[in-house]
Amino acid sequence: MNRREVDPRTSPLAAFAVQLRSSREAAGWIQDELAERMSYSGTHVSAVETCRKSPSRSFARKADLALGTGATFEVMWQVIRDAVLLEGFPEYLQYELKAARFRTFELGVVPGVFQTARYAEALAGADIDRGSITPELATERVALLATRQKRLLRGLDAPLVYAVLDESCIRRVVGGHDVMVEQLDHLTCIAALPSVTVQLVPFSLGHLRPLLLPAVLLTMRDRSLVGYTESASRGYLEREEALLGIWERAYDHLQVGALAPAPSVDLIKAVRKEFHDGH
Hints:
By secondary structure, the chain is of the alpha/beta class. It has two domains: 12-81, lambda repressor-like DNA-binding domains (434 Repressor (Amino-terminal Domain), Orthogonal Bundle), CATH 1.10.260.40; 90-115 and 142-277, 2-Layer Sandwich (Endonuclease, Chain A). Helices cover 53% and strands 13% of the residues. It has twelve helices and six strands. β4 and β5 (225-230) form a beta hairpin. The longest helix is centred in the middle third of the chain and has 20 residues, at 135-154. It starts with 11 loop residues before the first helix and ends with a helix.
C-alpha cells in the first residue's frame, strides 16, 4: 500500500494525523480495526491520517477512548480550531502532550494547569473587556485549558508535574475573594496528588530569585529538553541545549530557595484563610 507521509511540523492538523497513525500502529491495529472501535469507517480514519479530512471533536474523543490516550487527541483537536492561542503555543502543545516531566515557574497568576474554571473565566473575561478576544473565543480558551488539565493531572500517561509559584500567584486577587478561596482550596487538593509537587517562592527571597520570567521546562521520554516562555504577544519554544541547560540550573536553584512542599501548602492555607476572613 502506498503511504502518504505527513510532516507533523507543518500544521496542528498534520500533527494530529501523525499522532493518530503513530498511536494506532503502536496498538498493532490497521485502520479498519481502529475505525471499528471508534464506529467510523476505515476510509474516514485514512482521510484523517493523511490530512484529507479534519477531525471532529467526537472523532478526537473516540480516538482517545479507543487508544487509551487520555485527552491527547481532544487537546490536539482544540489546537486545530482555536484561533486565540499565542503564536508558538500550538507547537509547544505538541511537545507537552508527550512530556514525561513538566516543570513550570509562574509569576502573578496561578498556572493554567492548576486553575479552576471560575479563575480561568475571570482572566479570560479581563481579555474580553480589553477587546483582545471575543466571548466565544474566551469560552474556547477555557475549554482547552480544562482538557489540558485532564491530561496533565488525571490522564493515564500524565507526566510528573513540578510547579514553583511566586508568592504573588496566591495573593493577587483574580475574580474576587470567593473565586480566590475556591482556587486556593483547589490548589491545596492538587498539591496532594502523588504526581504533583508544588513549592512557593516567598517574597522574602527578593532579588535572589534566579528566574525572572515565567517558564516551562518539558523533559521528553527520550530525556531531551524543551523550554517555553511567553511575551505579551507570542510564545517562544526553546530547543537550544546550552540555553536550556542555563534554564534547568536556574530552576534547580529556584527549587532550593523555595519553601518545601509541606510549608508551601501551609502558606496556601494561611492565605486562603485571609481571603475567607476578609470577605
